[in-house]
Amino acid sequence: MTTRYACLVTKEFPLQALLRFRPELRRKPVAVLDGEPPFEQVCSLNSPALTLGMATGMTKLEMEMFPAAVVLARSRAQELAARAALLECAGTFSPRVEDQSNDSCFICVIDITGTETLLGSPSRWAKTY
Predict the structure, then answer these.
(1) Which site from 49, 51, 63, 86 is most exposed, i.e. has the minimal number of CB atoms within 10 Å?
(2) Percent of residues in the chain assigned helix, strand, coil, to nearest 5
(3) Are residues 60 and 86 in the same domain?
(4) CATH classification of the domain holding 63
(5) Where does the pLDDT of residue 128 fall: very low under 50, low under 70, confident under 90, or very high at 90 and above?
(6) 37 CB contacts (<8 Å, ≥6 apart)?
(7) Which residue, 39, 33, 35, is CA-closest to 18?
(8) Average pLDDT over residues 65-92
């Protein structure tokens, strides 16, 4: 039997965890600040924010040049809750799940070996999910 793995990747995870409960902000330029005042810096942002010229590492003061942007404070609690929800979801596909996340990206590897009879072929699986 061939060993097969699937990966679930969520880039800009600090932002995605906050947008989970604020879907009205998804199309607006949004940046997330991390750190203690007055040393807060952008740690995560979305595509509309990048289009405006914002970048990771910008300071809170530099963010004032973008009045259209929504600036949010990082929430480790919401990140933990979102990570738990994603890992629980991954666990419904396989009991063998490994969290390889880092500070800015959620990454989990799922062993899908032998799931073809339940979920179909890996190529079908990738198109469906």
Answers:
(1) 51
(2) 35, 25, 40
(3) no
(4) 3.40.1170.60
(5) low
(6) 60
(7) 33
(8) 95
- For 52, the enclosing helix (H) or strand (E) is helix 47-52
DSSP 67-109: TT-EEEE--HHHHHHHHHHHHHHHHTT-S-EEE---SS-EEEE
Q: By residue range, what is the domain housing residue 95?
A: 5-11+77-128
- Please indicate, yes or no, whether the overall pTM of this predicted structure exceeds 0.90: no
Other CB atoms closer than 10 Å to residue 108's CB: what's the count?
20
Band of pLDDT at residue 124, cut at 50, 70 and 90? confident
pLDDT of residue 68: 94
**How wide is the angle at C-alpha 7 spanned by C-alphas 6 and 11, nearest 5°?**
160
CA 105/CA 29 separation, integer angstroms: 19
Residue at 9: amino acid letter: V
Task: Say if residue 115's pLDDT is above 90.
Answer: no
Same domain, 92 and 124: yes
Task: Look over the chain and give the mean of its residue pLDDT values, rounded to a whole number.
Answer: 91
- For tokens 């969290």, the residue is 99
